[in-house]
Amino acid sequence: MKQFPFICTAGLLAALPVSTFADHAANKMEEMLVQGQELKSTLQAEQVLTPGAVSILDSASLMERNTANLSDALRYIPGVWSVSTSGSDSIFFSSRGSNLDATNYDMNGIKLLQDGLPVTTADGNNHNRVIDPLASRYATIARGANALKYGASTLGGAIDFVTPTARNTEHNELFIGGGSFGLQQSRLTLRSVLSESLDGIVTLELKQRDGYRDHNESERKGVYANLGWQPSDNIESRFFFTYIANDQELAGALTEAELAADPDQAGATAESGNFQVDVNTRRFANKTTFTLSESSSIEVGVYQENQSLYHPIVDKVLVDSDGDGPDAPVEVFSLLIDTNHQDRGAMLRYKHALGDHAILLGLNWGENKVEGGNYRNDGGLRNGLTTLVDNSAESVEMFVMDRWQFSERWTLVYGIQSISTERDVRNTTVSSGALRNPSADYDSINPRAGVIYQLSDGVDVFANVSKLYEAPTNFELEDEASATSATLDPMQGQVFEVGSRGRYALANDGFWRWDVSLYYALIQDEILSQDDPAAPGTSVTSNVDDTIHAGIEALLDASFVVSHTTRIEPLLSITLNEFSFDNDASYGDNSFPAAPSYVIHGEILYRHDNGFYAGPTFDIVDERYADFSNSYTIDGYNLLGFRLGVNREAWQVYLDIRNITDEDYVSVHSVVDTVSANSAIFNSGEPRSAYAGFVFRF
């Protein structure tokens, strides 16, 4: 078994300062960057008694810097490696080593939720949409098995985005932002408490960007609204509506030679094939809470989401069988996906406080259908149907969890999850009528147990042991290596985690804090995919026997008082990774590609009580492999930035400068078995750039 070489650094990290986003005990909640007693109470209930890595992302902090996509929002969340392909909404994300394969296909491994209701499809993919973080009030990031509270069954955990309402939002708000590469953003939020029982809020959004690469324009229009109705003191119902039209040109990936010659050019076939991903989304949801007593409540939610996807992604692959002879080259493959997606589901939560016990019972049900077809691609236009697509999935997750404070200093958190899920892929080749039908049912029981011990007032240590389980997505079944109706085994394993979090007070109301977790997971049958060299833009997927996922995650911060009106506030997010094969027949103990061994994000801000802040930001990213053979290493990089702004009650302004030294680097890449000279898998990172934004509250 491959050794875990950096366990010894855990003790050092545990002694460092830490996190504005992490779990804290009740007496620490006042220090969190949140607004209002209601939010503080909610975060206390969700986070205080978690014996593992769970972070809070307050959307108010996102308005102090440029947040153009989900990758920007997750910048300071340790354990999550998230990068935008080219500065647009097209991103790659991985939590605790999930999705470390072809990297840009179904984006599985993390369950996304909105107000506790899944956005991730029933088969586990996030291919078409991620959530706009600026449309949330806060988000909870529960990494790995710590996502039991949401019923999530994934390697990477879950992220739940909670929507603002008119009752917990104090002002109407206008945001205007823009900057390098043609970025223009505008958002208008209007809210009204119509009566004691009715309230409503709506946000209108427009974002445009030319992009720093060729063939990289994007435009997103969005409407986010919710209406609250409280017919009695013990019943509250809220209706949600979302509409998003998101059109993105895709610049495509480059070979090593193309990257060296011009990192901002489009891939060789991206423009001729007019690669793009255009998604229209409509979502309706309702969540109703019944307060049964002071100690018990029931939440019931339903949702329906419809999407249309238009996705030219592979240009014509031509074969000239007679070389320079008289016969013209023949198209053997191209791909344009044109499909309609329907997701619907429901959730149920029962909460009951019984003495020293806080009991949670939950159920998630989801159903997904994908209908349409794969076409030949002629410059972004459909050029004949090749494959009829009729895929479906259904998933039921049931779970129960108890938080038992059995003594003044000890809390036991234990629970179990049951998952039953179905996958059905029906791809019919039009020319022959042949049906490919990989179909399977996946069932599992997943236990979890953890403990929290309060060492002293403000200092906790914790540990947990859990089972990990994730079934394959329909995309992975479609891409199964044999190209038959064979299926894939589910990923499963065991993970052990220990950590500490706490806060120490300094003179004059200063402080330093930490939240450090160390985890070690043994996984069987991990599903990995690689870019198919015979059909770039598609992938080949298979199970591997044994893998190791291990890491250290630390989020550190402090506030040092300089004078009665000024202070210095450093923030540091550290992620150390060890993702590898374990005595594999083909790859031995090779490291996984795609994830750097370490990632450090940080900033050091000067803050004045008048709302002014300024300071440097930095990113330190280690090298990483581009292939499973570990034959090609992508260089690490160091980025330096600077941000400043003023935050007042009625207005706010920021300036965010990135990559001051204009360093060339690879942001996202596809994964292959072995990199060759013609492997077009690299995407260049963002050059020197600057962004500004203004918020007016009224």
UniProtKB/TrEMBL annotation:
<dbReference type="InterPro" id="IPR036942">
    <property type="entry name" value="Beta-barrel_TonB_sf"/>
</dbReference>
<keyword id="KW-0406">Ion transport</keyword>
<keyword id="KW-0408">Iron</keyword>
<keyword id="KW-1134">Transmembrane beta strand</keyword>
<keyword id="KW-0472">Membrane</keyword>
<dbReference type="InterPro" id="IPR000531">
    <property type="entry name" value="Beta-barrel_TonB"/>
</dbReference>
<dbReference type="InterPro" id="IPR037066">
    <property type="entry name" value="Plug_dom_sf"/>
</dbReference>
<keyword id="KW-0812">Transmembrane</keyword>
<keyword id="KW-0798">TonB box</keyword>
<keyword id="KW-0675">Receptor</keyword>
<comment type="similarity">
    <text>Belongs to the TonB-dependent receptor family.</text>
</comment>
<dbReference type="Pfam" id="PF07715">
    <property type="entry name" value="Plug"/>
</dbReference>
<feature type="signal peptide">
    <location>
        <begin position="1"/>
        <end position="25"/>
    </location>
</feature>
<feature type="domain" description="TonB-dependent receptor-like beta-barrel">
    <location>
        <begin position="238"/>
        <end position="660"/>
    </location>
</feature>
<dbReference type="Pfam" id="PF00593">
    <property type="entry name" value="TonB_dep_Rec_b-barrel"/>
</dbReference>
<keyword id="KW-0410">Iron transport</keyword>
<protein>
    <submittedName>
        <fullName>TonB-dependent receptor</fullName>
    </submittedName>
</protein>
<keyword id="KW-0732">Signal</keyword>
<feature type="domain" description="TonB-dependent receptor plug">
    <location>
        <begin position="50"/>
        <end position="158"/>
    </location>
</feature>
<keyword id="KW-0998">Cell outer membrane</keyword>
<dbReference type="InterPro" id="IPR039426">
    <property type="entry name" value="TonB-dep_rcpt-like"/>
</dbReference>
<keyword id="KW-0813">Transport</keyword>
<dbReference type="InterPro" id="IPR012910">
    <property type="entry name" value="Plug_dom"/>
</dbReference>
